[in-house]
Amino acid sequence: MAPNVVLVTGVADQLGGRLAARLATNPSIDRVLGVDARPPDAGVPAGVEFVAADIRDPRIAKVISSAEVDTVVHAAPRASVGPARSAIKERNVIGTMQLLAACQRSAGVRKLVVKSTAEVYGASATSPAVFTEKDPPAGGRDREPAEIEAYARGFARRRPDVTLTTMRLAELIGPGVDTALARYFRLPVVPTVLGFDARVQLLHPQDAVAALERATLHDLPGVFNVGGDGVILLSQAVRRAGRVALPMLRAAIPAATKLVRGAAPVHFSPDLARLLNYGRVIDTTRLKTTFGFTPTWSTADAFDDYVRTAH
């Protein structure tokens, strides 16, 4: 069933903002509410009603009920890295709990879309060559993606009448993307893990937004991996970026990036460190067959588009 009133969290971030803007141009949607603690740096997109709110605050329930929201897109979770890691993790986990509690109390909510990440699978020496949606989430310290998904599954058990779609996005790369991985490839000398050449799968932000939009507009319950076709070896990516690789022990890489003068800081999460060591590839068969979406950009094309605008 097509949505009438959509609430998108995390509109100050790139994906949430772009998604809200796309939905606001859809004539079949009556209202699009964009929620975040701060307004987008580039301004609120036309047609989007900005709501300055912290989803950790229980008052988010009043926003959902008073606006008669029927579809919620939880695009707010972000990578918890850098000096503010603890605060980001709290917003991810506590914010998700409060948002789902609000959705549970609202009889009008019919659909919930959760932006998750392929990080939920982890990366290790024992990882399968390709992860499918049936593979269990990995444990470890940086496991809030798994926590968020667990809360979403709990919500679905309590509200079986609500369509739940969980989108596990591969690493984003492309124009305007400012992530730890994107900053890593902007380093003039790129430290790599000695003796390893990880396979990496990437996702262009245009495809990420398009996939989330499809999940919002259609009833497509389930968990779906979202990534560009193909993979790229880390060594190939470094060369395509016009950089020089510097092999070293994995434990030394975070410290080595801080020694590069003039470069944007690269805040390494434990998952990113493991990704650069072991790599991660996800199967997108269900995305293409059951979900009905094929990314426009392959992994290599997405990376090359990033390179064109990274300098």
Query: How many helical stretches?
Result: 11
Low-confidence stretches: none
- Cα Rg: 19 Å
| Percent range of helical residues | 25-40%
SSE topology sketch:
Blueprint: E1 5-9, H1 14-24, E2 31-36, E3 48-52, H2 60-66, E4 71-74, H3 85-105, E5 111-117, H4 144-158, E6 163-169, E7 171-172, H5 180-184, E8 189-193, E9 199-200, E10 202-203, H6 205-217, E11 222-226, E12 232-233, H7 234-240, E13 244-248, H8 253-258, H9 270-278, H10 285-289, H11 299-310
Helix pairs in contact: 1-6, 2-3, 3-4
Can I get a quick summary?
The protein has 311 residues and is of the alpha/beta class.
Characterization of this structure:
It is globular and about 55 Å long. α2 (60-66) packs parallel to α3. The longest helix is centred in the first third of the chain and has 21 residues, at 85-105. With 311 residues, it is of the alpha/beta class. The chain has helices at residues 14-24, 60-66, 85-105, 144-158, 180-184, 205-217, 234-240, 253-258, 270-278, 285-289, 299-310, and strands spanning 5-9, 31-36, 48-52, 71-74, 111-117, 163-169, 171-172, 189-193, 199-200, 202-203, 222-226, 232-233, 244-248. β1, α1 (14-24) and β2 form a beta-alpha-beta unit. It has eleven helices and 13 strands. The strands form four sheets. The protein has a seven-stranded parallel sheet with strand order 3-2-1-4-5-6-11, with helices on both faces. A two-stranded parallel sheet has the order 7-10. Strands 8-13 form a two-stranded parallel ribbon.
